[in-house]
Amino acid sequence: MLPETIAAVLKALNRHKIPFLFFGMEALNVYLARERLQSFGTKDSDFLLDPALATPAAILEALQRIRFREEIFVLAVRPGRDRPDLLFDGKHWKKASPAPTTTICVGSPSSDYRIDLVVGTPAIPFRDLWRRSKRARYFGVPIRIASRDDLLKLKAAADRPQDRMVLARLRAGRKRS
To answer: 176 exposed, middle or buried (CB, 10 Å; 0-12, 13-18, 19+)?
Structure first.
């Protein structure tokens, strides 16, 4: 996925005044790079959106106004569903009403990297995450990034195998320092 595509999505959210927080592994990698620690591989950039502040319909409206410079697709992934709904096939937007809590994925057929816009209620209330977040720039776009401590708490709460591995490796690294 082209950096311009990622920047275009973030600029569209900002332009439509849709608050979002950078979180997930790529966000944690930002902190690890600052600390000169080894980063973790990831194939996506995750952005958290509060369903009380941003509906999937508003997000899709913002995305539909972008003139992408590469072929992209947009999917909606609902919790508990096996298959995503195709919202944009690179040429045509489908009429859709994604669930209030859903993940909108922006991807490119030429790349396995994607942007995940996660509309949902995290383990830590969004307003608390926002209050502790930091201002940053990502691909040149002003954003808010969840605090390092909150990112670790969210990883612990998710309790997925990959999150347990990341937390164990970070703990092991701290013991050595």
So the answer is: exposed
In this prediction the pTM is 0.91
| Per-residue model confidence (pLDDT) at position 173 | 62
Helix, strand, coil proportions of the chain in percent (round to 5)?
35, 25, 40
Going along the chain from its start, the domains and CATH numbers come out as: 3-176 (3.30.460)
C-alpha radius of gyration, the chain, whole number: 16
Please state, in angstroms and rounded to a whole number, the distance separating the CA atoms of residues 126 and 44: 21
Q: What is the DSSP letter of 93?
A: B
| Predicted confidence (pLDDT) at residue 145 exceeds the cutoff of 50 | yes
CA-CA-CA-CA torsion sign (10, 21, 163, 121): negative
User: Which residues are CB-neighbours of 63 under 8 A, at least 6 positions away?
Assistant: 9, 12, 74, 88, 104, 106
